[in-house]
Amino acid sequence: MARRETESRTGDSGGGSGGSGNGGGGRRERRRARAREDRVRQETLVATTAPADAPLVWGAGVGCRVLATLWLGQLVLLSPFAYGTDLAGLTAVEWLLRLWTLSVALWIFARLGAWRVTADRDGVAVPRLFTVERLPWDEVGKAVARRDGCVHVGSRITGPFLPVPLARLLRRPDGARAMADHLTIMVRNPELRPTERADARTRVRPYAVWAPLPLAVLAAAHLLTG
């Protein structure tokens, strides 16, 4: 009797494991289906894309710039250095916290409103805080679009474009996927890559380059309220 009960429990456990395996198989099948869709879409893009002469540039659109402007507006209203505060009376820790908060806020402003990615004959240029990372084509691998509108380019994350759910709601193109597809087909098809290098007009710049603009706005706000 004890043996039968043990065998029965073992059988139940095996059935549960099989169910879990089916769940994992379902996820794998969905990933395979998405990979097939990506492959078909990219093959179609290859057939309809002409080789590029000038460097290709992706960057912040109107939506990103509006968000950056709104972010700057709230930064002016809620300045880390509160209006009317006696700055001379701040402790070292208070200065450090306020400067850290301001630095993060400035990075978010530039990340939203000033991001740019350039693909030229040498590879892909992606901005960082103080530098620009230039990825040769053989190091890019592939580009992957995320649902939040950002794009993985090699090991870097850039964007954002309009998030996928919002793009569908507004019936707008999926900019992140379009960029990821175009970069991916250029990785796989060297003849589709631009034949020229980026010039001063299309060159990518570090995010820190854009910091003086919001700093000037903050300084003006403090002077006007002083």
Summarize it:
The chain has 226 residues and is α+β, with helices and mostly antiparallel strands. Helices cover 54% and strands 12% of the residues.
Protein architecture, described:
With 226 residues, this protein is of the alpha+beta class. It has seven helices and seven strands, in the order H-E-H-H-E-E-E-H-E-E-E-H-H-H. The strands form two sheets. The chain has a four-stranded antiparallel sheet. It has a three-stranded antiparallel sheet with strand order 5-6-7, with helices on one face. Strand 5 and strand 6 form a beta hairpin.
Beta strands, count: 7
Question: Which range best describes the helical content: under 10%, 10-25%, 25-40%, 40-55%, 55-70% or over 70%?
Answer: 40-55%
Unreliable spans are: 1-20
Distance from first to last alpha carbon: 89 Å
Radius of gyration, in angstroms, nearest whole number:
25 Å
The H/E string reads HEHHEEEHEEEHHH
Average residue-wise pLDDT: 83
Contiguous helical run count: 7
Characterize the largest beta sheet: strand count, sense, and whether it forms a barrel: 4 strands, antiparallel
Tell me what portion of residues adopts beta-strand conformation: 5-15%
Itemize the secondary structure elements and their pairings.
Blueprint: H1 2-48, E1 56-59, H2 62-77, H3 92-113, E2 116-119, E3 123-127, E4 132-136, H4 137-140, E5 143-145, E6 151-153, E7 156-158, H5 164-169, H6 175-188, H7 212-225
Antiparallel strand pairs: 1-2, 2-3, 3-4, 5-6, 6-7
